[in-house]
Amino acid sequence: MTPELKGFLLFSVLKMLVVFTAIMVTVALLTLMERKVSAWMQDRHGPNRVGPGGLLQPVADGIKNFIKEETLPGFAHRWLFLLAPALAFIPAATVIAVIPWGAPLPLDVDFTLGPLGRFTYRGALPLAIADLPIGFLFVVAITSLGVYGISVAGWSSNSKFSLLGGLRASAQLISYEVCMGLSLVPVLMLSGNVALGEIIGAQQAGLWYVGPLFLSFFVFLVSGFAETNRLPFDLPEAESELVAGYHSEYSAMKFSLFFIAEYANIVTVSAMVTTLFFGGWDIPFTRWDEQGGALQTLATHVAFLLKVLFWVFFVMWIRWTLPRFRYDQLMALGWRFLIELATVYLVVMAVAIHVVERVLGLAEPRVAALVYTGLNVALGYAVFFVIDRGLIIRGSRQQAERAGRAPARPPRVPVEV
């Protein structure tokens, strides 16, 4: 084995250990963050008993789940019941391997480790465990496998509530996978590449894609909420209807694995939103971060983490702000609005890219991005304020009232204090 190959393998193993450990610790802390965020929004304290300010609450929860009784329903399919939590967790943990967490780190090392021999690494070390040239397609493919864990959990539990939760999850995730895939095609057309690092580079040369591809960003974000089973799309585990949905029969660490997978998926969706639409590790208004160096790598890593943290907070913010959809509203939003919107938008952006690049010949990326941003502002106004007319975005109540099928709103009775 050559020293270069040994150096590559050594740094790959180190990246795996660091990233996996960081993600597991982050997932534990996100449970505390969500409880603190909800407490802040509801004007209460939240966890404050275990450790200073409640910081050790995730440790207490972990110990509790390890020592709780493991249950197995008498009529459950034993092996599939035990396998389902792993099927939900493994795809969520695997996707994180291709996320570029910062600018590449320039290295020039040559050292010897006793009997292991000589190790050499020269060049830029990507801050992704696996810097795949098809990283974007890998993420889309692997995230779609998460539905199997939920479906298998629902079916193998041999419970009507679990089965209904699994069926809901299957229909929901498959439906919004279509929306998500269609929303990302304009990103590929504009960047001309499926490697996540190259997509970030294209945004550095022009503008972050949240402007030039605003409607793609909107569809992707909504689909991401549905993919993670978060409110207002948590129908597979609707406690008011299905006890706890697909994981009703689970306890202890098997139960915890589903929630670890959910929070890992939240991190993944937040990282993908950051990478595809907010410049990834790019620091705005400066070219300093593109010069290469250890300090630039550290700064871009911090910038990436701050962006991801904002979107994780946004996911939690939405959970404690919006009520749960009805299931018919959920499916209608996907099949009757988002898919049509993403398909039409795909055609419009394809024509726009052809006109800007081939007809007008705008070679400057920033100028072309400004043109696409103006087009998306016009399209966004048309979609949300002209075409919608309060029928979809503002809820089904107005639609029913306009059709004359809903009862009149009850008059407000003044309350004397």
How many structural domains are formed by the residues?
A: 1
Strand tally is 2
Strand content: under 5%
Order of helices and strands: HHHEEHHHHHHHHHHH
Number of continuous helical runs = 14
Keywords:
single chain, 417 residues, mainly alpha, 14 helices, 4% strand, globular
Could you explain the architecture of this structure?
- The protein is mainly alpha-helical and 417 residues long.
- It has one domain.
- The chain is built from 14 helices and two strands.
- The longest helix has 39 residues.
Furnish the topology, listing elements before pairings.
Layout: H1 3-41, H2 57-67, H3 78-95, E1 105-112, E2 118-125, H4 135-143, H5 146-156, H6 160-191, H7 196-205, H8 214-227, H9 239-242, H10 252-277, H11 294-319, H12 327-359, H13 365-387, H14 396-403
Antiparallel strand pairs: 1-2
Helix pairs in contact: 1-2, 1-10, 2-10, 3-4, 3-5, 3-10, 5-6, 6-7, 6-8, 6-12, 8-10, 8-12, 10-11
What's this model, at a glance?
This protein has 14 helices and two strands; from the N terminus they run H-H-H-E-E-H-H-H-H-H-H-H-H-H-H-H.
